[in-house]
Specification:
The chain has 355 residues and is α+β, with helices and mostly antiparallel strands. The protein has six helices and 23 strands. Strands 4-3-2-8-7-6 form a six-stranded mixed sheet. The chain has a five-stranded mixed sheet with strand order 10-11-9-13-12, covered by helices on one side. Strands 17-16-15-14-18 form a five-stranded antiparallel sheet, with no helix packed on it. A hairpin with a 6-residue loop joins β2 and β3. α5 crosses α6. The longest helix has 20 residues.
Length: 355
């Protein structure tokens, strides 16, 4: 009988588990013994979730994050975070059952399954879920009346119109929503107050304050100035509170003005010039503001009037107040017929057709 080579004999010996004696596919212990000797999963006994009772934001380590998820949705995910698998575990699954014990405490039962070294494994563990309340950084600042800026919306030699007030407020809230969605939790608006002079917007950060005044002036025109005030120090840094003063132009879009003998509608306001649409001639042009004789009103506030007749270059308009028919010159841009409605503004006793 031929003597086996040492290498072949060694391979045969390595096929047996040194612990149980069963055949082994590995160098050493068989898969069953490896599974028995391996702590394939561990579970933390307790997991704490910190949330803000005012806004519902959740705290992870030292970072707050906005969330609208309810406790019932958070609990299974929180329980799964307590499970830690051995790196060799494959095809793992966790079934979670949660029982609420009190307002501040729940108990989660986890059925954990997986595959380790080709063999199925499973384990059941219990995790206590603690629900703690803590006021978040943003709500803490708001309740403490903390703010870093004040946006004041005013107008040049007049009061801001209701349209301008509404537009400025809408711009501010849309910017706040955008910044909050982008993770800037401290870029908030704590107060919006309509005053006798205009609108005041209290903001939590200088960043949102700057974006608001830039958005307002971009849409409504005008200019803004900043007025910082030193309010203290923190960690060796000076703290400033900034007042952003927005000064809207005297003329606003859709203002109807008298330029010489012609009525015109303001389309765009610049520093010392305005872009107008000449209602009499039916064309646009740019003029100096000192060419404007006076302001009649704003086309946004125009009344509707019924057209009684159209003859030649005259339009018979039924005054909605007096019910008398008034003749107006038909403008080049106006296409109308009897029975339709047109928009009018009043210049004393005179009716002015506007777009």
């Amino acid at each position: 009988m031929a003597e086996q080579e040492p290498s072949a004999l060694k391979n045969i010996q390595q096929r047996f588990c040194p612990k149980c004696g069963k055949p082994s596919e590995n160098d050493g212990l068989c898969n069953q013994c490896r599974v028995k000797n391996t702590e394939w999963v561990t579970c933390d006994r307790r997991v704490t979730h910190i949330h803000c009772p005012s806004c519902g934001a959740a705290k992870q380590v030292n970072t707050w994050t906005d969330t609208d998820r309810e406790r019932a949705d958070l609990a299974p995910e929180l329980a799964r975070s307590a499970v830690h698998f051995h790196p060799d575990v494959k095809r793992s699954s966790i079934a979670v059952t949660v029982l609420d014990l009190s307002v501040n405490r729940s108990r989660a039962t986890l059925m954990i399954k997986g595959t380790l070294y080709g063999l199925p494994v499973e384990k059941e563990c219990t995790v206590e879920l603690a629900w703690h309340k803590e006021q978040c950084d943003r709500c803490n600042r708001i309740t403490g009346s903390y703010y870093e800026g004040l946006v004041q919306v005013r107008a040049e030699d007049r009061l801001p119109s209701p349209f301008e007030i509404q537009t400025a407020g809408t711009i501010a809230t849309h910017l706040e929503d955008s910044l909050q969605a982008g993770g800037e939790r401290l870029s908030y608006i704590s107060d919006v107050t309509e005053t006798k002079d205009g609108l005041d917007i209290t903001v939590g950060s200088q960043h949102i304050g700057l974006l608001i005044v830039q958005g307002i002036t971009a849409q409504l025109g005008g200019r803004y100035t900043t007025h910082p005030k030193l309010v203290g120090e923190k960690n060796g840094r000076q703290l400033f509170r900034i007042t952003y003063l927005v000064r809207l132009p005297y003329y606003q879009r859709h203002d109807v003005v008298l330029v010489g003998k012609n009525y015109a509608e303001v389309e765009q306001v610049e520093t010392r010039r305005v872009r107008i649409f000449d209602l009499t001639e039916g064309r646009g042009r740019s003029i100096n503001t000192d060419m404007v004789t006076r302001r009649i009103g704003n086309a946004r506030l125009a009344e509707q009037a019924l057209v009684a007749y159209v003859t030649g270059d005259m339009v018979g308009v039924l005054d909605p107040v007096t019910c008398a028919t008034t003749e107006c010159r038909k403008m080049p841009w106006l296409e109308t017929k009897a029975g339709e409605y047109v928009h009018i503004l009043r210049d004393g006793a005179r009716l002015v057709l506007v777009r």
